[in-house]
Amino acid sequence: MFFIVASPYFAYQAIFHKKYFGSLAQRLGYLPVSLNLDRDESIWVHAVSVGEVLTARPLITDLRRYYPDLKILLSTTTLTGQQLARRDVRDVDGVFYFPFDWAFAVCRTLDVVRPKLFLMVETEIWPNLLRECRRRGVKTVLVNGRVSFRSYPRYRLVRSLFKHVLKDIDLFCVQDDEAAQRLLTLGASPDHLKLTGSLKFDALDASLTKGRGRVLRFFRMSSNRQVIIAGSTLKGEEKAVVRAFNRIRSSGSSALLVLAPRHPERFDYVERLCRHEGLAVVRRSNLPIDSEPRADAVVLDTVGELAELYQAATVVFVGGSLSSWGGHNILEPAIFGRPIIFGPFMQNFSEIAETFLRNEAAVQVQNEHEFTEAVVNLMADPVYRARLGAGARALVEANRGAKDKTIEAITSSFPARGAVVRAFRVVR
After folding, report:
1. Distance set, CA 199 to CA 171, 203, 382 (Å)
2. 281, 297 in Cβ contact below 8 A?
3. Each residue of 51-79: b (16+ CB within 10 Å) or e?
4. Would you tell me how many other CB atoms lie within 10 Å of the CB of residue 252?
5. Residue 45 pLDDT > 60, yes or no?
6. Catalytic residue among 41, 52, 122, 351
7. Are 122 and 144 in contact (CB under 8 A)?
8. In sequence order, what DSSP letters do the residues of 43-86 get, joined into one string?
């Protein structure tokens, strides 16, 4: 019955947003037999989209080492996450789409994947799947756990029901005290909760810090040309960014603007906006290799390149923060020592944002006017940029270690066959 009721919604998403085409069978639990041909036991890691895949990648490498007898299978929800997982995550035995949380789809998926351990990255809590995992004896872990400011009020409204769902999770590895307190308030058992820190600090691995250089080959910038990158932008933010950029251009600057909309379906709109505001604009997918972009603005319409491209930036704006969304990850530009600007809405990363502000490692603005002034000031002051960037890089290096704590929590609670169990110690 629920499938029938929900079908118009999924049809709408498929037709107007091109979601689910080519993946509907997997989302209904019809996985290819080749995913686990020999029906081996596995570890199932679920990462919703690009950010979660990048977060899970170093953890997956360690899981391979600690659980050599188990296959590792990775699921995503979004197409962009799926593309990145297939292209860049090497330590997995298979990649597939996460099923709809309907009993028949969940059971079919579990029958093929046959997990002994199910890991959810961040806040991915699905009642039917967790209930079926409990029934089958599959251990479940929430890693890099957090409860966003947008989700928390909704969860509290149904706390009496939500706490029963949380009882089906065997281990919570959470990012910070705020996440821990929210989960405890919602009904998580304190005996099952470990404070391990944010995996996002450790996800900035050698492939990022050293840079493979592929995307930079499309941005062979002259040494005197400045670059403003606006990453993961949402509706309304691009207009503010373009206006600030035009203010800089009016002073005779030859700077380049790179706009990376959060959602691929908005690429066309952002390209039209740039043209409407008088900018010569090109898409990243149309750039010639090994040359400097001959345009005022570039729309980054590719998957998985933004994090590496940050190293080319003079100034970075992290989107989702001038709108009420709640912000996005500021650590990717920080690892390259780039000066970072974000808006007033950073609730999704409140503790990290507060740490950066407290250490004078980023700039927060309250509105479009302040944003424009901050961009203009940073572009004109190399000493100010260097100070902010150095502070950001130092904070990233000082906060690494969540991966090791998370692996220790998992392996202590669910030791591999023949493994030596070490006592778990929470480091605060």
Report:
1. 16, 6, 31
2. yes
3. bbbbbbbbbbbbbbebbeebbbbbbbbbb
4. 6
5. yes
6. 52
7. yes
8. EEEE--SHHHHHHHHHHHHHHHHH-TTSEEEEEESSHHHHHHHH
What does DSSP assign to residue 310? G
Taking residue 374's Cβ as centre, other Cβ atoms within 10 Å add up to 19
- Note the pLDDT tens digit of each residue in 79-134: 989 998 998 898 999 999 999 999 999 999 999 999 999 999 987 789 999 999 99
**Does residue 1 register a pLDDT over 80?**
no
- Rounded to a whole number, what is the distance in angstroms from the first to the last CA of the chain? 48
pLDDT beyond 50 at 9:
no
How is residue 212 annotated by DSSP?
Answer: -
Nearest to 246 by CA among 264, 273, 220, 207: 273
Helix (H, G, I), strand (E, B), or coil: what is residue 317?
Answer: strand
Q: Locate 116 and state its tokens.
A: 């002994």
Closest C-alpha to 338, from 308, 311, 374: 311
For residue 309, count other CB atoms closer than 10 A to its CB: 26
pLDDT score at 427: 38
- β pairing state of 171-174 and 193-195: parallel
Cα 371 to Cα 205, 244, 249, 317, 364, distances in angstroms: 30, 8, 16, 9, 8
Q: CA 80, CA 49: separation in Å to the nearest integer?
A: 6
Burial 341-362 (b: 16+ CB within 10 A, else e): bbbebbbbbbebbebbeeeebb
What is the spatial distance between Cα 387 and Cα 125, in angstroms, rounded to a whole number?
40
CB 287 within 8 A of CB 218: yes
pLDDT tens digits along 295-310: 999 999 998 899 999 9
Residue 18 pLDDT more than 60?
Answer: no
Backbone angles phi, psi at 329, to 5 degrees: -65, 125
Q: Which residue has the tokens 């969304």?
A: 325
pLDDT band at 183 (very low <50, low <70, confident <90, very high): very high
Mean pLDDT on 24-52: 95
Its pTM stands at: 0.72
Asked if 10 contacts 42 with a C-beta cutoff of 8 angstroms, the reply is no
Active site residue 178: no
Task: Identify the residue whose tokens are 């500021």.
Answer: 330
* Confidence band of 208 (pLDDT split at 50, 70, 90): low
- Neighbour order of strands in the sheet with 115-121: 94-97, 71-76, 42-46, 115-121, 139-145, 171-174, 193-195
